[in-house]
Fold these 4 entries.
Entry 1:
Amino acid sequence: MKKYVVEDKLNSEFLVHRSVFTEQQILELEKKEIFSKCWLYIGHESEIPKNGDFVRRKVGGRNLLFTRGSDGAVRALYNSCTHRGALVCRENKGNTKVFRCFYHAWSFTNKGELVGMPGKDGFSETFNCNGSKNLKEVTRLESYREFVFVNFDNNAISLEDYLGNAKEYLDLVADQSELGMEVLLDPQEYSVRANWKLLSENSVDSYHGMPTHKTYFEIVATRGGELSKGDLQGVGLDLGNGHAVVEYTAPWGRPVGRWIPAWGEEGQKEIDEITCKLENKFGKERAERITKKNRNLLIFPNLVINDIMAITIRTFYPIEPGYMEVTGYALAAKGENEEFRRRRNDNFLEFIGPGGFATPDDNEALELCQEGFLNNQEVEWNDISKGMIREQPLSNDEEQMRGFWRKYNEVISNSSSKNLQEEQVKG
Amino acid sequence: MNITRQAIEDFLYMEAELLDEWKLEEWATLFSSKGSYLIPPIGNPNADSAKSLYLVNDDRARLEQRALRLLKKEAHVEYPHSSTLRNYNNVRIVDQNENSISVKCNFTTYRSKRADLDSFIGVLEYKLVIENEELKIEEKKVVLKLESLRPQGKVSLIL
C-alpha cells in the first residue's frame, strides 16, 4: 500500500507526499472518494429567501440548481434536461415558476416536475407516470443553521453526524445576530493555479500569517489595530472527520465585536450594545468568545468559514491537479445599520478576496508551491510537524492541518489500496 | 468644465503609463482629496456596496495604501513586479457640467508573470474634477467585462 501521509509520533514528524498535489490519478480518486461521498456545501438559505428563488451552483463537478420551490422547500436539482441533457437554466440566479430547456422546449416546475413538452401526442399515455422524466433531485440535502449541504452518496451518514465537533464553531458564527445571518449578493468567483488541498491547508494556517501578510498588518496598524503581545494567540484543533479549526486573538477590528480606534465613539457604542445583547443571551463567557476570538474553520474537504475581520464562506474545486476554481461569499448579520455594514465590508475587502490586500498573496504562495512541485521526483515530502511536541498545539502550529491530512489519508490510501487489489485480481 | 477630449485622452494615457511603469505613488496623486477607486462585482456594475460583495471599494486613503503596498517587496504577489500593458480605446465624454466631467473608455490590460499572460477587459468610468487648478480623478470605476476572474485568479495590479 502506497503511503501518502506518514505520522511518526515518536520523532514528532508528519509528512505528506507531494504526489497528491500533482497526479491526475489522485484527482480521479478524489472525485470518486471525496467529491462523490462527502457532504459538500451548496449554499446558505438566505440566498434563496422567496419561493421560486434559485441560484446556479457547481458542486463536486455537478451542475446544480439550488432552489426554493413554490412549496417553500429547498432542493438541489440537477441542471440537466431529462430529455437530451442540456442545461435547463442558464441564468446564474433569479426567481421562476418554470425552468424551460431551450433545445426542445421541455419545461419543468421549480420543484422539478415535467409540465410541458411540444408534440405530446408522440409519447405514450403513461409517459412520466413514474416521475422518471422530472428533473433529477439530489436525494441527500440537509442543512445546519441555514448552511445547506448535499451529498451524492445515498448511504452517507447524516450531516449532523458528519459535522460532529465542527457544529460548535458554526454555532459561534450563526449566533452573532438575533435576526439571523445573510449572504451578500454577488459572490467572488476566482481561481488559483494550484492544487485545491493547498487552499484547504492555507485557510486554517496561522503560521503563514505574519510572513505572508506583513503588509496587511501594517495597514491595520494605521487604523489603530496595532499588534500587541496578546494577539495571534490561541489553539489549533483537529476536530475529527477531517475538520479543523484555529481559534485566536488578533489586532484587527471585528464587526461582532471588537472595536478599533478608527471606528470612533459611535462605533464603540454599537459594539458595546451588540456585546451586551450577546451577554444577556449567552452569558459573559460565550459572548466574549463570539465577539473577541477569531476562527478559521475548515469543514472537510473544501468548505472554509473564516470568522475574522469579516466573515467569509469559501468553497473550491479541482479542475486539474494544478488548477482550482474558488467561490468566495460574504456572510453578515441581518438588519445591521448602513454604517456598520460599511465597516464590515471595508474590513472584508481590505483583507479577503481577489482584490484584497491578503488573498492575492496567498494565491501567489500556493502557485509557488505548485511550481516547486516540479521537483517532486527528487524532493518528495511536505513537512507538517509544527507543534507535535506540544500537548496542546497553538493556533500557529500545524495540528489542525494534520487533522485534514489524517482524514484524507484514510480516504485515499484505503481507496488506492483497494483499487490496486482489484487490479491485481483482474490482472 | 471646459476641456477637450484631446486633453482628457492625454490625461488618461498618462495615467496608464504611470501604472505600466509601476509609478504608483504618482498614480495616487492623480486622485482628488475625495477620490475613490472601485471595482464593482462582475455583472453588477451599479451594485449597492452594502448588499453586494465588491472586488475593490477604496476611498482616498485606501487607494493610496493599495499603491504603497504594491511597492513593497512583501506584496508577494507583485514581487517581482509583473509586466503590464494597458490599452485605452473609445474614449468618450458622457456628461459634462460646470464642476465635473464624466468620461468612459474601453480598456484591455495585460499582465504577464512567469508562464502566464492574463488579460482584463472592460470599461473604465471616470469622474474628473478640477482641484487646485489641476485635473483630478474624483472616481474611477472599473467595469469588468468578464464572466469571472478565471483564470486570472486575482486583481493584484491596479486596473
Entry 2:
Amino acid sequence: MTDMVIRAEADVAEAGPWRRLIRRKLALIGLMLIAVVVIGALFAPLIAPYSPSEQHFEGLTLQGAPLPPGGDFPLGTDLLGRDLLSRILYGARTSLIIGVVANGLALIIGTVIGVTAGYLRGWIGAVLMRFTDLMMAFPALLLAICLAAIFQPSLWIVAMVIALVNWVQTARVIYTETTSLAERDFIAAEKTLGAGTGRILFHHILPHLVPTLIVWGTLGISTTVLLEATLSFLGVGVQPPTPSWGNIIFENQTYFQAAPWLVFVPGFAILILALAFNLVGDALRDVLDPTQRGRN
Amino acid sequence: MFTYILRRVVQSTLILLGISFITFLLLYVLPADPVRQIAGRSATAQTVQNIREQLGLDQPFIVQYFRYLSDLVQGDMGRSYLQKSQVSELIASRLPATLLLMGAGILCELVIGLTMGIVAALRREQPLDQTLMIMSFIAVSAPQFVVSLLLLYVFAVQLGWFPIGGYGTWAHLVLPAVALGIMGSGWYSRMMRSSMIEVLRQDFIRTARAKGLTRRRIILRHAIPNAILPVIAMIGIDIGIFMGGLVVVESVFGWPGIGQLAWQAIQRVDIPIIMGVTLVTAFAVVLGNLLADIITPLIDPRIKLR
C-alpha cells in the first residue's frame, strides 16, 4: 500500500517537469529544433545527397567559382566544389559530439570540484575555489586558443580544451548549492545516524544536485557549440577535412563577398543549434528550479 | 569597508599571479619551438643554441618564470621574438584602439539591452515582451563572427554605408561596436527586464502611485534608476566575456587592437606577446570584478560585505 503511494507520487514528480516543459511553446520549439539536428546528424549518410568530401567537377563554374544554392546542389557548393548540404549534415555530427562530450566533461569536472569544495570546506575547499576564481578571470577564448595551439587539434582534443575552459561556471553553482545542502538538517541527521561521507555524497547530496546539473548541462551545450564554432572559425578548432560548421566558414571566409551562402548557411545552423539549447535550458530552469518558479 | 577593499585587492593580486604562472607554464610546454621560428629553417645547431642562450630559454622553468616576474614589476614585459620591439610598447600602441572599441561596444550593448529590457518589463506578458525576449535569446545564441560577417555583408558590401573593415574614422567604429555589443545586449535585456519587474513590485512604487504621480514620472524617476544600477554593476563581471569577443571581432574587421595582436602572436608562437596580452586582459577582468565588488555595496547598502 505505502509502496504504491510512493510510486504514484514518484510518477507525478517525474511526469510533472516534463509535461510542464513541453507545454511551453518556446521549449517545444527548442526541442523540435534539437530533434531536427540530431536526426540530420544520425542519418547524415542517408540524407546527404553526396559524400561530404567529394569534390565535384560540375560543382564549380567554368571560372572555378562555387555554385549558388539550387539545382543539383540544394545549398550550393564550396570553394573546392563540395556539396554544402552534405557538409552541413556531417558538420552537425561534429557540433553534437563536441557539445555532448565537451560539455559532459565540463559538467563532471565542475561537479567534482564544486561538491568537493562545498562539502569538505576547510583548506581543500578554499584552494579549489580560489583556483576556480582564477580560472574565471582567465580570458576563456585566449586560454582555449593557447591550449588548442599546444595540442594538435583533433575532434577529441578540441572537446577536451573546451571542457578545460567551461567547467568553471558549473563548479561555482554546484559549490554554492552543496554548501547550503550540507548545512541542512537532514544531512546532520544522516551524520548522527553514522552515515559515511561516501553515502552522504552519493545518496543525499548528488541527487539534490540533479536538477541544477540538467539545467546547466543544457545551457552549457549552447556555450560549447558556440565556442567550438569560434575556435574552428579561427582555424584552431576541428581541422579540415572533417567538416564542422565553424571550419566551413573558416575555409570559405575569403570568398564570402561573392559566395555569402558559404558563410551564412553554416552560420545559421550554429545559431539554430545554440538557440535551441538556450530555449530548452531556460525553460528547464523555470520548471526544475523552485527558487526561480513564478518569477517570470 | 577599508579592510574589505584591502582583502579584495590582495585576492586580485594573487589571482593575477596565478594566471601569470599558468600561462607561463602553458607556453613553456608548447611543442612549437620559438627559437626555431626566430632562427629560420637554414640555421645551424650552433646559431640555434646561441639564440636559446641569449633569450635565456636554456634556463630551468622556475628560473625563467621568476626572471619574467621581476622584469614585469619593473614594467618590462620582454621583447617580441619576431618584431624586435618591446611588448609593453606594442601593447600600449594597440591599447587605445581596443579601449575605443570596447567603450563603443559596451555602450551598444547597454543602450540596446537596457532599452529592450525596460520596454519588455513595461509590456510584460504581452506580444511585444515575448518578441523582445525571443530576440534576446537569438542575440545570445548568435556566434559573434557570424554576426560580424553578416553586418559586414549587409551594411558594408551590399548597402555601402560603412567601410569594409579598417580603422580611422567614426564610420569604421560602428559595425565592430554593434557586432561586439549584440551578444551582451541579449543578457542585459533579460537582466534589466527581471530587475525592472522586481522594482515595479516594490512598496515605494505603490506609494508613488498612491501619491498620484503620473505613470511616466513613476517609471522615469523611480523605477528605472533603481532597476538600472544592479544591472550596470554587472559590466565589471562581464569584461572577461567581452575580451573573448574582441579577438574575433578585431580579426574579422581588421581592427588594429590587442585582440588582433594576440591572434597574430599565437599563430607565430611569439610567446612574449601572448604572455603580455593574456596578462593585460586578465588584469582588465580582475580590475572589472574588483570595481564591481566595491561599487555594488555602495549602490545597494542591503548587500552585506563578505
Entry 3:
Amino acid sequence: MSESTDPVPPPSLDPELERDAPIAEARGVSQVYPGVTALDDVDFSVRAGEVRALLGQNGAGKSTLIRLLSGVETPSGGEVLLGGVPLGSGGVAAAAAAGVATCYQELSLVPGVTVAENLALGRWPRGRFGIDGRAMVERARATFERLGADIDVHAEVAGLTLAQQQIVEIGRALQDDPRLLILDEPTSALAAAEVDLVLDTVKRLAAQGVAVLYVSHRMDEIRQIADTATVMRNGKIVETVSIAGSDTAHIIELMIGADPEERGVATRPVTSGEVLLSVTDLDVGPKLRGVSFEGRAGEVLGIAGLLGSGRTELLQAIAGFRPLTAGTLAIAGSVVERPTASRMLSLGVGMTPEDRKGRGVIPGLGIDENIVMSDFGRVTRGGALSSGAIGTATRALAERLSIKAHDLSRPISTLSGGNQQKAVIARWLHADSRVLLLDEPTRGVDVEAKAQIYEIMRAVADTGKLVVFVSSEIEELPLACDRVLVLRDGGLREEFRAPDISLPVLLQASMVSS
Amino acid sequence: MTTTLDTTTTPTGGPGGAPRGSVVGRVRDAFRRNTTLVNIVGLLVAIVLLYLYLMFNAVGFFTVANQSGLLRDAALIGVAATGMTLVIIAGEIDVSTGPAVALSSVIVAVAMTQWGLPALVAILITLVVGAGWGALAGLLRARFLVPSFIATLGLWSVLRGLGQFSTDALPVPLPLDEPIMPFLAGSVLGIPTPAVVMIVAFLVFAYVARKTAFGRSVFAVGGNAAAARLAGIKVKRVRVVLFAITGLLGALSGVLLAARLGSGNAGAANGLEFDVIAAVVIGGTAMSGGRGSLIGTFLGVIFITLIGNGLVLLGVDSFLQSVVRGVIIVLAVLLNVTLSRKRGSMEES
C-alpha cells in the first residue's frame, strides 16, 4: 500500500523509456455503489505526451474512472497505478503527489482576487515578511508562458472571460507539475469562438510531455487534439480507437452498442395544432445565434445538444428569465414586445429548472403549497387562501401525475426525486400554462419515474399544450418526442420528426459539424 | 415504491413509535410532524414556570399595576415583532426598529404640537412616513441588492441621528387638551390599549402569514428565493412590502410610546431591535428563513418581557440584568435549535 509520503519517481528518467511506461494505469478496477456497478473490471492506461479522449453516454462510467484516477475514490476492486506505483487508498493528496491534476467542469477559482493569487492559493510563496508577492507574480507569469497564454496575472479573475478563467484553472492545475492532466468537459461552458484558446493550450502541454485525458463529446475538438479515444458504455471500456482511423459513425456505434428496446410512448408528427410558440432569429448572450422554430399545441418537442450547447439558455430566454440579445418571441400568434418573466408567465409559459433541488422546490413547504404557488389566485376564496380549494386542486393533480404521497401537506423534501419532479411539473399544470418548458425533468430520477414523466408529457400535450423537453440523455428523446431540434455550434442545426428520430442520428447531429 | 417514500408516509414509523391510533402515539406523531408545536409547547411550559416562580418570589409581581405594566412592555416589543417575524421568515433582517420607534414618537409629537395638526392626521402622517422609510430600505435590498442588514443598519443610524438633530435630544411634549393620545395610553375594558393593538396585530399577521398569497410567498422566498422566482412569485415586490410593513409597525409603536410617555423622545427605545429579534428567534423562527410562526413570536415576546420584569423585581443589579438576560436568551435559542434539529434528523432517517 502506498502512502502519501511515497517518493514520486523522478521525472528525469531516460526520456525514451518514460514515453513508453504508462503514467497512469487502472488494472481490473471495479467500483460498486449501493445498487449500481459504476465500473466493471476496467483496464485503462495513458502515456506521457498522449492526448486521450474519453467518450461515453451519461452513466457510462467516465466520471467514476476520473474519480478513481485522481484519488477522490478508492476502487472496490482492482488497483490504480500512478507512475507504476499503486495508489492504494492514498486519496487526492497521494494522487496529486504522483502527478495527477484534475480540472472539473465547475470552475473552482476565487473570483475576487487576482490571477496570480489564485494560482498560489494554499501554497503562497513565503518571503521574509509574510507572503512574497513578487515571487507569486513571477511564478504565475512563468506558468502562462509555459502555456503560451496571454493572461494578465494582476487581473481579477471575475473580470476574465470564461475561456480565460478555464486557462487559469488549467494553470493552477499545473502548479504541481502534473504528469497527467484530466480535463472534464473543459469547453462546455464556452462559446464556440473561445474554444480554440483552450485547445491550443492542451496541444502545447501535450508537446511538453504531459498526458492529457480529455472528456468531451465535441467530435470536432476531439479530432483537433486527441490521438486516441477510449469509448465507455455501461461501466466498461468498449474499445480504445485511433482517432485518425475511425469515422464518427463508428465511434457513435461503440457508444450506443446494441440498443436495448426501451419502453417509450406513442409519438407522431404534429402538423395541425395551433402554433403556440414561435421563436424568430433569437440571439441569447454569446451562446446562441439566429435560433428560429415553432411549437404546436399537442406536441412534445425535444431539444438535443451537448453540455454547453445552450439548451438551458434557450429555455430561460423563452421563459423571460434571460434577456434576448436579438430576435422575437410570439405566444399563440402574438409577438411579446418585452418578454419579462412575469409577462411570459401571464401568457402561459411555465418552466421547470434543471436544478430541481436548488431552484425547483422549496424544501420546507408542503407538497400542496409547492404546487399552488405558481398561481395563488386559483385557490383564493374571498381574499384568503382556502385550504379546501388547495386540497381539491392538488389532490386532482397528484392523482393525474401519480405523485405518491399519502399526505400532500407534508414537506416536499420527504418525496423521492421523481415525485418531487412531478410536483414541480404539477405547478405549471395548476397555473394552466399552455407552453411547458421542462429542463432535464428526468435527471436523477429512477427508471420507473422516467417512464411516468414521458407519459405525463404525452398526456399534457394531448390536452392541447406544447411540451418542450430538454434532456442531456439523448437516448430519452426518441422515446418521448414528436420532433427533436438539435443545438450545436451556437445555433439550431437540425430537425428530426417522428418516426425518424433515433439515437444514432441525434448523437451524430449533436457531436459533429456537418 | 421507493424507500424514501416508505419512511416518510408512515406517520408513526421509526424505532419506538407508539402504535398508531393510541393517544400517546397521536401526540408523539403530532410533535414529530410539527416543529412549531414543539417550540410552542416548550415555550408555554417555560412561561408558566417563570410566571409561577415570579408569583411566589418577586414582591409586587402579581399586582394589577405590574401586570398592566407587563402588557405595556410586551406591546412595545410585540407590535414590531409581528412584522419582524415575516421579515426573518423571508430570510432578511431589520435592525432599525429602535430608532424608527423613537423618531416616530418625535414626528407624531411635532406634528401635533408644532404644526398644530389633529391627532388622527398626525398619526396617519407618522405611519405613512414610517412605511416610506421601510420601503426605501426594502428597495435597497430588493432592487440594488444591498444586504438587508446593511441597508437597515444605515437606516438605524440615519433615523437616530435625525431624531436627535431635530429635537436637540430633548423630549417634545404632546398637547394636553387632546383626547386620542390619552386613549392610546389608557385601557380598554381593563386591558392597556397598546396590548390590545398588539393582540390585533398578532391576529392580523397570523392570518396574513397562513392564509394569504403574500404570506405564503414570504415563506417561499425565505425557503428558496431562486425557486420562488422561477415559480412566478414576485420576489422583489415581496421584499419591498415586507420592509414597508416593519417601517409602518415601527411608526405605530412610536405613536403608542409617545402616548405612554406624553412626549416624543429621540433617545427612546434604545436597543429595542435586539429584544424584538430575540423574541422572534426564541419563538422558533429560523434566521436562515423559510420557517417560523406568529404564535411562537407571541410567546417569545411574553417570555422576554417576563424575564425583563422579573429581573427588575428580584432586585438584580441593573448592569448584571443585561448579562442574565443575554445568557437566558442564548440558552432559549440553543434549546430551540436543538429541538428542531432532532426533529429534522428523524425526518431524514
Entry 4:
Amino acid sequence: MKRMLCICLSLLMIAGTLTGCSGSKSSKDDKKTLNFFNWTEYMPDSVLKAFEKETGIKVNYTTFSSNEEMLNKIKSGEKGMYDLTIASDYMVDTMRTSGLLEKLDQAKIPNIGNIDSKYTNMYFDEGNNYSVPYMISNAILCYDKSKIPEGINSINDIFDKKYKNSIVMLDDIRMVMGLAAISLGYSVNETDPAKVEKIKQKLISLKPNIKLFDSDSPKTSMISGETSIGFMWCAEVALAMQENPNIVPVYPKEGISLMIDNFVIPKDAKHKANAEKFIEFLLRPEISKMVSAEFPYVNPNKAAFELLPDSYKNNAASNPPASALDKAQLVKNLGDNAQLYDDVWTEFKNS
Amino acid sequence: MKKTKQKIIKTFGKLHAVLILLFLYLPIFVVVAFSFNESRRNIVFTGFTFEWYGKMFENTRLIEAFGNTVIVALCSTIISTVIGTIGAIGLHKYKFKGKGIIDTLMYIPVVIPEIILGIALLVIFSAAQMPLGLLTLIIAHVTFSIPFVVFTVKARLNGFDPSVEEAAMDLGANRLRTFFEVTLPIIMPGVISGALLALTLSMDDVIISFFTTGPRSTTLPMQIYSMVRSGVSPDVNALSTLILIGTITIAILTQSGIITTIKNNILGRKQK
Amino acid sequence: MKAKKRFKGLPKIVTLAPVSIWLLLLIAIPLIYILVISFLGRNSNGSIRYSFALENYQKLINAQYLKIYAQSLLIAFFTTIISILLSYPFAYHMAGGSKTKKVIMMLLVIVPFWTNSLIRLYGWKTILGSEGILNGLLMKTHLIQQPLQLLFTMPAVILGMVYTLIPFMILPLYASVEKLDHSLLEAASDLGAKRYHAFLQITLPLTLPGIFAGSIMVFIPALGYFFVSDLLGGGNNMLIGNLIKNQFNISQNWPLGAALSIVLIAVTILLVKLYTKVGGNIDDLGVA
C-alpha cells in the first residue's frame, strides 16, 4: 500500500515538476529573449546564430506563410506574444491604422541610413516611425526552357490550354489576384464589383493549368520538374535557377506588383529593445549580405549591395530592370472590401 | 479439390496481407533510406552518409520541438491516465443524475473530427485570455486523451468481479487500500494500454496542436508540418528514424506486456 | 460507525469529480461557446460583433460552400470504401493465424502509428512525384514514356487519407472477425453450402458491426482532415477542414468558422445516429 502510494505520489510530483519547469522556463526568458515571427524561408539560421552569439539574446523563431496568416495570429493571440515580425507594405498600413504597431525608437536604429531612399518614407509609413524595410519580394514568373522552348513573356501566355497542369502558383490572395488584375490592365487594388467579377472569371479560367499552390517553397516543384511554369517570389526563382540552369525568370510585359517587406514591432511587445537591436543588426551591410546570399531577394540596403557577388548582381530575378520597377504597382490595404477578395479566392480555389 | 481451393484462398490472403504491410511501410523505408542521403533534398538519392545524424543535434529548433513533444506527451499521459482511470471506476460503479450527459460528453472527442475540438479549445483559451503555450497544449492533449483512457479501462472493468473488492473490505481494508492493492493490479493491463494510447495520440497529434500551440511551444509534429511544406532537410529523416528505432525497441521490450494486454482486452470484451 | 458513514459519498466524488469537471469545462463549454459564436457577426476589422446574426448560416447555403461539403463527403466516402476493401482480407487473414502471428501482425499495424504521420505522408511525396521513385521505376523499365501525374490530384489525397486511417479500420474489423464462431461455418459446409454462400450469409452479416465501427472511425476523421490535402493535394482541393482552418488561421472570420463547425458536428451526429440505427454498438468505437 505504501509502495503504491509512493509510486503514485512520485509520478504526480514528476508531472508537477515538469509542468513547473516549463512554467519557469518561460519566466526565465524575461530579459534575454526575442520572439521573432517571420515568413518561411526568409532568414538564414547563420544570421540568427550570429545575433545570439554577439548579444546573448535567444531568438524564438516561428514562421507563417502569408501576411493574412501573420495578422490573424497577432490579433487572436495574447498581447505582446511576438516582439518582432515582418509585414509587407499594405499590411504595415493595415496594422498601423489599426493601432497594432509600436512606434520605433529611431535613435536606436541609425543604420536605417543604409537603406536606399527609394524605399523609405513610402505611403504606408511616412517617416518610418513604425517600420524599417527588410527585403523586396516581388512575385515574378519563370519557366523551364527545356520544356517550353517557345518561352513566356506575357501573363496571358500562361493561360494557354497547352500548359494544362504545369504551373506552380503562390498561395497568396493579393499576389494571385493581382496577377489576374494586371493581365486585364486593372489595378491590383480594384474594388469595382464588375471588374472584380472579371478578375474572378479570368482566374477560374487559369485553374486547370495550375498543378499546385505553394507559398513556402515553390522552387522545389520547378527544380524537381514537377511543374514547368512558376509564379513565385523572386528569390525562389533565383534559387531555382541556381539548381536548374534551364529556369528562366520573366518580368511580364504587362507589369508586376511590388512587395516591400518591413520589420515592425507589434504593440505591447515584451522585448522591444531587443527587437530594435535585432533590426539594427540586420541593417549592417555584412549581415544583410548574409541574408541575400541565402535568400536572394531584391536588397534595399545600398551598403550591402556593394558587398554582394556578381552572381547576385547579374541575376535578373534578384535585380528587376528599371522598366519593370517603373510600371510596378503597389498593393494597398482593401479595408472593408477585403471580404470581396476572400470570397473570390474561395470560389477560385473551389473551381 | 477443396483442399487446393482452400490453399489458393489462403495464399491469396497471405499475399494480400504482405502487400498491405508493404503499403504501410513503404514510405517509412523511404524516410529511413533518405536519412542516409547525401543530397540535401529528399528527391534523388545521391550518396550514402551519416552526416545528417550529427547535423540533427545541431538543429536546436528541431531538438527543442522534440523536447516539447516529450514533455507534453508525458505530462498529458500521466494526468489523463490518473483522471481517466479513477473516472472509469467511478462511472462503472456509480449511477448519478447527469451520468447520461457525462457519458455523451465522453464520446465527443472520440467521434467528432479533431478540427472541431481544436478550434473549440482555441476559442475557449482565447476567451479566458490564456496565453497559448505548453500549458494550453497539455490541457488540450489531456482533453482528447481522457475518453480513450476511460474506454480502455472500462473495457477491462467489464470483466471485473466486484466480489474481490467486497472480500477485501470485509477483511478490514479501507477503500483506499482496496483500490491500490486489489482493484488497481487487476485493471493494470487496461490502465497501461490506456496510457500507451494516450501517449501515442499525444506524440503524433497535428490538428489539435495546430490550434492550441504558441510561439515558444512548437511540438515536433508542428515543426515537421512547417518543414514538409518547404522541403524537409534530411536531419528530420534522421530524427524520425531514431524515433522509429526507439519505439520499436520499446515495443519489443514490452512485447509480453502487450500480448497479455491485447489478449485480456479482447477476452474482456468477449465476456461482455 | 459514524465516521465511515460521513465519508460514504467521498469515493463517488473523488472518482467522478475530476473527469466530470474536466469534460464540462473543456468539452461542453467550448462547444456551447462555438454554437453561440456561430450566431454572431463579424466586424470589418475581423473582431466578433456581439449581435445576433444568421448571416453565417445563410452564407453556407450558397453553391460554393455546398460544393466544398460535397467534395469532402465524396473523398471521405471513397476513403472508407477503399479502406474496407483493403482491410477486410487483411483482418480475416490476421484472425486465422496463430496467437503469435496475431500479435506480430497487430504490432506491425500499430508501429507506423508511432512515427509521425506527416513525415510518412512526406515519404509518399518522394514516391509519387514526377521524378519520384515510382515514376523512375516505371520509366526505367519502359512501361511508360511520360511520367504519371500522380501527385497533387484527388486520388493522391484519397491515398493519403486511406494510408493515415487504415489502422482504424483494420483493428475494429479484426476484433469483429476474431469473435466469429467458426463452428457456424463448419455447420454450413456440413449442410452443403458453398464457400462464398457461407461468406455472404454468415461471415459478412456477423462481421457487419466491425465494418460499421471501422467506417465511422474512418469516415468522420476523413471529413475533418486538412493536412493530407495540404501535403498531397497541393492546395488544389478546398475541403471542409481547409475551409474551417482558413477562417481561424487566415481570414479571421471566427463566426463563420464556428458555423461551419456546427454543420460538421450535425453531420457527425447524423452519421452516429445512423450507425446506432443499423445496429452498431457505440462502445465498439474508440478502442483503437
